[in-house]
Specification:
five-stranded parallel beta sheet, 563 residues, alpha/beta, globular
């Protein structure tokens, strides 16, 4: 009879235990968790702060009793594995309540201890009003402190997924929230041109968003930033990031990879073939970057756990690596991404182009129709799709899941252009936004027209470039680029003589669709230096708004327009 010991529960450890049981009814399975909860929804933790999850007990997925009753798995809580003796194939376990130490033998061992929140070595990091969020105990402690102190001013440090979700839920709970991020933007899976939408949404919802500035010191009632700025803070939540919990593996002499996480082979075996590792503690192969990386996501952890369990029983698993797909709700917006963003693709030396389009997420006649911002990143000259980002009030995740599937299948923009997707006016448009992005991409790659990015528009305006706005007169009157010439698309052919042929011409509308038609009409009428402004006025307004506020700079528009 095989005996498998698993260190850590939640997504990786619990999934491995359940799969082993399904494969082997006779195996002895022992799972150790150093905390009081062996299985919980860690991705749902922030939602307890707002009351979206009304009771912290609902965060618990399985208890030791339910593991025993349903799966015949011996799940032991408050049991910290403090040492691995590889020679004897045993682990030393400390009861965190009594301090008692025991020894447990194993035939095979699975490491799934997860990752530990990073706490910077700064003055005040150990004050009692400083918290991190890793498990149910953490979120209960934070929630209790906020209620008992009636804390009104809360500073969240870190603009990753956890930081943004904590900030959002605290704001929904009626607290004054400051979100501080050292990088120039929050949520680094998104490119700069896309993330400005989320920056604006955070500000519009009342969050004090501070980017490009880092934490320097924590005091009892405020935080001090590198810039010297002081922010009131009754409570401080550190969400700077996590590091893999590799202490056990290091002390046991297991090989640590180049990223600082445990190195595993294609079957998730460590350098000791009797010890497997899964989840946040390991490094994984990124199939697009062609190198090892770390990916702290529940979905990959569960797949890794299943593959490791299968390998124990001789079932082959194909390890294709990871591409990094994720999604998040930011107040009224859904945001999702997959693969590489444009910034990362260029940093690693890929030759890529990107299209940014804004299209309805469903037929415009439908009352719930909203713009969906979609960016597609593809390789030149192959057209292979390497990434995408979507942000909108509708189903952004649905579109990204389509692209994630294509990336996994090595799909190209030609494949995406011809992809047959389901359609109903209530769910999408006949040509879905992902198909439209592929059409734009194929036209660009074929050289049928040229584009410039929203990030280039400020420079064009300041240089006095010739910009044509093909929106209707009433749209133009509500807000326009300074210096732009308004020639509605319906009047373009009669007024072409107003457009010079000896200088570059840049065309935009509200979302780039009318301006694309205008560009093609000009190209087919002898104009040779015409470009469409990707994202057009809606994209320009969203891109410029937050940066204009934080940099206190003169807007390049007479008025922003977000509709």
């Amino acid at each position: 009879m095989k005996k498998v010991v698993i260190i850590g529960g939640v997504a990786g450890g619990a999934s491995a235990a359940a799969r082993i049981r399904r494969l082997d009814e006779q195996a002895e399975i022992v799972m150790f968790e150093k905390g009081p909860h062996v299985s919980f929804s860690n991705c749902s933790l922030p939602f307890y702060l707002s009351g979206v999850v009304a009771d912290s007990k609902k965060l618990l997925m399985m208890t030791p009793d339910s593991f025993e009753a349903k799966h015949n798995i011996d799940a032991r809580i408050n049991s910290e594995v403090i040492a691995i003796n590889r020679a004897d194939k045993t682990v030393t376990v400390k009861n965190t309540v009594t301090g008692e130490q025991t020894t447990e033998d194993y035939d095979q061992l699975v490491l799934s201890p997860g990752a530990t929140p990073i706490v910077p070595k700064l003055p005040g990091n150990d004050l009692p009003h400083v918290f991190t969020v890793r498990n149910v105990v953490d979120i209960e402690r934070l929630h209790k402190a906020i209620i008992e102190q009636d804390a009104q001013n809360i500073a969240v440090i870190g603009g990753g997924f956890i930081g943004v979700e904590v900030a959002e839920n605290l704001r929904l709970a009626g607290r004054n929230v400051s979100l501080v991020e050292f990088a120039p933007q929050i949520l680094t899976p998104f490119d700069e041109d896309m993330v400005q939408i989320l920056h604006k949404e955070m500000v519009d919802q009342g969050v004090e968003l501070i980017v490009g500035d880092g934490l320097a010191e924590i005091t009892p009632n405020l935080i001090k930033l590198n810039s010297g700025k002081e922010v009131a803070a009754d409570i401080v939540v550190l969400a700077i990031g996590v590091r893999p919990e590799t202490t056990l593996a290091t002390e046991a002499g297991l090989e640590i990879g180049e990223t600082g996480a445990i190195k595993v082979n294609q079957n998730y075996q460590t350098s000791d073939p009797n010890i497997y590792a899964v989840g946040d503690v390991i490094e994984v192969y990124h199939r697009l970057m062609n190198k090892q990386t770390r990916l702290a996501l529940a979905g990959p952890a569960q797949r890794q756990a299943r593959a490791a369990a299968d390998h124990m029983y001789g079932i082959p698993a194909k390890n294709k690596g990871v591409i990094g797909s994720s999604s998040i709700q930011v107040f009224d917006y859904a945001a999702a991404s997959t693969g590489l963003n444009e910034r990362t693709a260029k940093e690693i030396g890929l030759s890529v182009e990107a299209v940014y389009i804004i299209a309805p997420d469903k037929v415009g006649l439908m009352p719930s129709s909203n713009p969906l911002h979609f960016k597609l990143v593809y390789e030149l000259p192959t057209g292979r799709i390497v990434g995408a980002q979507a942000i909108g009030k509708g189903n952004a995740d649905k579109r990204i899941d389509v692209i994630a599937t294509l990336i996994t299948m090595n799909g190209t923009i030609e494949d995406l252009k011809e992809l047959e997707l389901s359609y109903s006016p209530m769910f999408s448009t006949a040509k879905d936004v992902v198909n439209l992005a592929a059409l734009v991409a194929t036209n660009l790659m074929a050289g049928r027209f040229k584009q410039v990015r929203v990030s280039d528009v400020r420079r064009l305006v300041e240089e006095g470039a010739f910009i044509v706005d093909v929106r209707e007169v009433n749209e133009f009157a509500q807000g326009a680029l300074k210096g732009a010439v308004n020639i509605p698309l319906g009047e373009l052919r009669e007024r072409m003589e107003e457009i010079p042929t000896d200088v570059p011409v840049y065309v935009h509308c509200r979302s780039s669709q009318r301006s694309y038609n205008a560009v093609m009409a000009l190209n087919n009428s002898g104009y040779t230096n015409v470009a469409n402004i990707s994202g057009s006025f809606l994209g320009i307004s969203l891109y410029e708004y937050y940066q204009d506020q934080v940099n206190n700079r003169e807007p390049i528009v007479t008025a922003y327009n977000f509709k």
